[in-house]
Specification:
By secondary structure, this protein is an all-alpha fold. Helices cover 48% and strands 0% of the residues. The longest helix has 16 residues. The chain starts with 9 loop residues before the first helix and ends in a 10-residue tail after the last helix.
Length: 69
């Protein structure tokens, strides 16, 4: 795709438009925010860490806070 300093000629621009089509982005429908949020939890390791955190919280143990008898 060579062009010179002055740009493409009208004929070359029409030829490239016919060959490659218009220069447009692919428009996709965006997912709702809730689905975007929950799609982050597809990884099994993330689920494992969340379950382990929930079990630890239910047992009352925290690596940050001191444990009281």
């Amino acid at each position: 795709m060579a062009s010179d300093e002055t740009g493409l000629t009208s004929a070359e621009a029409r030829a490239r438009l016919a060959e490659f089509g218009p220069n447009l982005f692919d428009v996709r429908q965006q997912q709702p925010l809730v689905l975007q949020f929950f799609s982050r939890f597809k990884n099994p390791l993330v689920i494992l860490l969340l379950v382990a955190s929930a079990i630890s919280a239910l047992r009352g143990r925290s690596p940050i806070l001191p444990s009281f008898p």
